[in-house]
Design goal:
This is pantothenate kinase. Keywords: ATP-binding, Coenzyme A biosynthesis, Kinase, Nucleotide-binding, Transferase. It holds the Pfam family Fumble. This protein has about 425 residues and is of the alpha/beta class. The strands form 3 sheets. Strands 6-5-1-2-3-4-18-17-16 form a 9-stranded mixed beta sheet, with helices on both faces. Strands 8-7-15-14-9-10-11 form a 7-stranded mixed beta sheet, sandwiched between helices. Helix 4 packs across helix 10. The radius of gyration is 23 Å and the shape is globular. Bound molecules: adenosine-5'-triphosphate and pantothenoic acid. Adenosine-5'-triphosphate binds next to helix 5.
């Protein structure tokens, strides 16, 4: 494809082929593979600054996000291979998504990056693909390393999963305007993050399993707890109990259900009364799924939507409670919940928020992240910077961006163009300034 460059553009390293860029990072989890890739925009790479002076070359492009079920890893690898994302290939962003892949979701035109290349930085060379290192995190970076080498001919450069989650969370909280929000009484309210007062916080990542991480700064963290009752439990048990064929179908079902049909409430035990002495109202759940022991019913006698609702409530409530207890252990007031279990689902967020608020007597706050599922992959992507890529420096001409924060010693400017809609599809710009 012909690339029309602005007159100001120069080759970054004096070699046309090496001015092409496609950075890819993977987070291969127990349930889902998250893919983040940067593609250079048409004609980016200008090297004249606002005042007309020659400056460092700049690449502009976009970060794209996609996810696949881990069980369909071959679809993911085929997607990467067919788009040559593992190589240094230019202009891929222009190609139509002409083939259908079983990707779960794809976010395109998502983040615009302006990247100032360090002098001496050399891109991946397509002809040396056997030496190409792709940043990858999550258990699958170990489990599937050989398969990926075989199918794509690339070696995975493994990054620690917890490191990546924290890096991704810090990156989003500092760089992205309106990233965090509370969800109370059906209302989403964005939280203004004060960079100077971000730490410490508790990061609860609800993937297949749940990790709880106390974050004290950039790269400063401790995984203080976890639970195996997480997103995998909801989807696994839910699938068995309802015969749902997809996670989204199960979520949708839960939306329509009534948990009181199956959950035993305090009122069911107390003849309709509350137990106010210990702070329980009559509608508080006394025992999740507890009614099923006395109803003399079979599974088929319950509506799948009621089962899905009880299950979602039980798991969300439990995670909210364990999270709060861990926050209490370390005196943490802010808890950020992430991971693809949440899926921006109102009932999930509401249950977690209520659990945190109930147990903390309103003292602690549950907050959610708009890019909930991509923390690890973003962390792996950002880690290119830490380990030799050296390219993710930024261009000064980003003053037009609305938000300007400091991240890892660098100035990051970011603009949210549109509000996040219900599909969590978002269009915004990010730029880094040196
Ligand atoms: N389309 C989907 N298919 C399967 N699970 C989904 C889907 N969408 C959301 N989920 C939920 O998200 C969870 C996976 O979340 P996430 O991708 O954050 O974790 P993971 O990286 O796969 O897991 P882990 O970190 O424990 O290895 C699933 O267990 C499920 O509850
Ligand atoms: C094992 C991991 C870290 C893999 O992502 C995750 O699934 C998890 O945190 N599970 C919970 C394990 C536990 O702490 O009980």
């Amino acid at each position: 494809m012909d690339v029309k460059k602005p007159a100001s553009q120069e080759n970054l390293n004096g070699d046309e082929s090496e001015s092409q860029i496609s950075h890819l990072a993977l987070d291969i989890g127990g349930s889902l593979i998250k893919v983040v890739y940067f593609l250079r925009s048409n004609g980016s790479g200008g090297s004249v600054d606002d005042s007309g002076k020659k400056s460092d070359p700049v690449l502009e492009g976009r970060l794209h996000f996609a996810k696949f079920e881990t069980s369909k890893i071959n679809d993911c690898l085929e997607f990467i291979r067919s788009k040559n994302l593992h190589l240094a290939v230019n202009m891929l962003w222009r190609q139509a998504f002409s083939r259908q892949y079983a990707f779960e979701d794809i976010y395109v035109l998502f983040i615009c990056l302006q990247i100032k290349m360090n002098p001496g930085f050399r891109h991946h060379d397509a002809s040396a693909s056997d030496k190409t290192l792709i940043k990858a995190t999550g258990g699958g970076a170990y489990k599937f390393a050989d398969l990926i080498k075989e199918k794509l001919g690339v070696v995975l450069d493994k990054e620690d999963e917890m490191d990546c989650l924290v890096t991704g969370a810090n990156f989003l909280l500092k760089a992205v305007h309106q990233e965090a929000f509370t969800y109370v009484d059906g209302q989403k309210e964005f939280v203004q993050i004060d960079q100077n007062d971000l730490y410490p916080y508790l990061l609860v990542n609800i993937g297949s399993g749940v990790s709880m991480i106390k974050v004290d700064g950039d790269g400063k963290f401790e995984r203080i707890s976890g639970t195996s009752v997480g997103g995998g439990t909801f989807w696994g048990l839910g699938r068995l109990l309802t015969n749902c064929k997809s996670f989204d179908e199960l979520l949708e079902l839960s939306h329509q259900g009534n948990n009181r049909v199956i959950d035993m409430l305090v009122g069911d035990i107390y003849g309709g009364s509350e137990y106010s002495k210990i702070g329980l109202t009559s509608t508080n759940i006394a025992s999740s799924f507890g009614k099923a022991i006395s109803d003399n019913k079979e599974l088929k006698d319950y509506k799948p939507e009621d089962v899905a609702r009880s299950l979602l409530r039980m798991i969300s409530n439990n995670i909210g409670q364990i999270s709060y207890l861990n926050a209490l252990r370390f005196g943490l007031k802010r808890i950020f919940f992430a991971g693809f279990f949440i899926r921006g689902h109102a009932y999930t967020m509401d249950t977690i928020s209520v659990a945190v608020s109930f147990w903390s007597k309103g003292d602690a706050k549950a907050m959610f992240l708009r890019h909930e599922g991509f923390l690890g992959a973003l962390g792996a992507f950002v880690s290119y910077e830490n380990h030799g890529l050296g390219g993710l420096k930024t261009h000064q001409s980003v003053q037009q961006f609305a938000v300007s924060e400091t991240y890892a010693g660098k100035k990051i400017c970011c603009l949210v163009n549109e509000d996040l809609n219900d599909n969590e599809s978002i269009d915004f710009g990010v730029a880094f300034a040196a």
